[in-house]
Every structure is written in C-alpha cells, then in structure tokens.
Specification:
single chain, alpha/beta, five-stranded parallel sheet, 8 helices, binds BIS(adenosine)-5'-pentaphosphate
Amino acid sequence: MRLSFLGPPGAGKGTQAQRLSAARGIPHLSTGEMLRAAIRAQTPLGREVQGFMRAGNLVPDELVIRMLRERLRQDDTRPGFLLDGFPRTVVQAEALETFAPLDRVLYFDLPEPELLDRLADRWSCPKCGRVYNLRSNLPRAPGVCDEDGTALLQRPDDRPEAVRVRLKVYHAETAPVLAYYRARDLVLTVRASGSVEAVYERILGALGKGAPPGRSEEAL
Ligand code: AP5
C-alpha cells in the first residue's frame, strides 16, 4: 500500500493519517512534520526552510523531494507508506513517479469555512507533533500534551495571514496535483466533514471500494 492523503490545509489529513498508519502498520510520512522537526533541531535544512513555512509558502521542490526520497530509502517503508502533504506540486508528483509510484490518492474534501475553523482552534505538541483541537479534540489536561506533558502551542503558519497564503498556494500549486492523479484514475474522494470517527469510517469504506479486483480492503 503506497498511499497519499491530499487536500487543503486543515482538512484533517494528519489526524486521519496517524490513525490509519497505526491500524495498517505502515509509516505515516508527513513532510510538514519532518520540516518542523528540522526547524526545531535547527539543522541546515531547518534554517533554510523556516522562512518559507512561517509565511505559509511551499518549500522549494528540490529540498522536499530530496528529503522524502532519503526517508523512503529506510527499510520500514518496504511494506508501504502513507504520505501526508506530499506531493504538493506537479513537479513533486512527477519526481515521486520515478522512485515510489503511488497506488492510491485520498482526496479530503472540506468547505473553506470549516477549514478555517479547524485551523483557528488547532494546538499541537512541539515535541511529538500530536495535534489537538479546542472544539473537537481536547487534551486530557488543559494546554498540555497527553503523550509527553509538553505545553501545547499554535503553529506560526496558523496565523490568519499565513492561512490565507496557504489556501492561495493550495489552489495554485496543489489542486493541479489532484488533476494529475485523476487523469491516472488513482483518486478516491472522501467527504471530510463530521466527526473524526465518521471521516475514518468513510476512509475505510473508500479504500474498500477502491480495492483492485481480487484484493480485500485489508490487503490495501
Ligand atoms: P503541512 O504540515 O503538511 O500542513 P497542511 O497541508 O497545510 O496541513 P495541516 O497540517 O494544516 O492540516 P491537516 O489536513 O493535516 O489537518 P489536521 O489533521 O492537523 O505543511 C506545512 C508547511 O510545510 C507547508 O505550508 C509548506 O511550507 C511545508 N511543506 C510541507 N510539505 C511540503 C511539500 N510537499 N512541498 C513544499 N512544502 C511543503 O486537522 C486540523 C485541525 O482540525 C486539528 O486541530 C484537528 O484536531 C481538527 N480535526 C481534524 N479532523 C477533524 C474532524 N473530523 N472534526 C473536527 N475537527 C477535526
């Protein structure tokens, strides 16, 4: 199973990817999270990308392609992987085709007002990356991560001005990626409104229906 979750910022890709990757035993590879980890560690890559990310712009293709390609060389990706946030440009999709072609792309469909609400209420753990929401997914103790007790923060790119840029970039650069995979008949669309549980059930249903003939949903 080589899957990618595609959709606008705040659609719930990371939330669902964590769950599906745990259930299927395949790694969840979030390029956003990898880049944030590089910024936290202040590696040369982290220092190079932090300005782009803070403003809501995409990181240059060659940097993110190289980073993902190196990660996909690790053994844990042999049984499959779940990409979250990659590819985000047609250049990235074409590059991926040369080293790890996808089996399926799940497109998260959510109206813009709901995206904005979800992003405005998102808090996350700067240590482990776990995501919370003030309305729909509260931590057990206010303001601290359930996993490691770290104080939760809002992402700098969830400021309204950066969110506006991210949505614009999404429509200009990432929507064509959806067309790229639709032309190859790889896209399953999932309605991303409703509870986390309801969306997860729709994802399982979409993957089941999307199974190639002779393969069960579990095989996907
Ligand atoms: P990235 O981290 O990938 O951000 P994104 O795509 O904008 O996606 P988000 O993380 O904002 O949203 P999500 O869909 O994962 O939603 P979540 O599950 O958190 O990228 C960040 C930046 O990194 C980019 O702007 C770019 O600079 C750079 N970058 C990354 N990849 C790149 C690439 N390939 N090329 C170039 N640059 C790249 O959910 C959102 C909120 O909603 C949470 O609070 C959650 O708890 C809540 N929620 C989730 N599901 C539900 C539900 N069903 N009901 C109610 N609330 C829900």
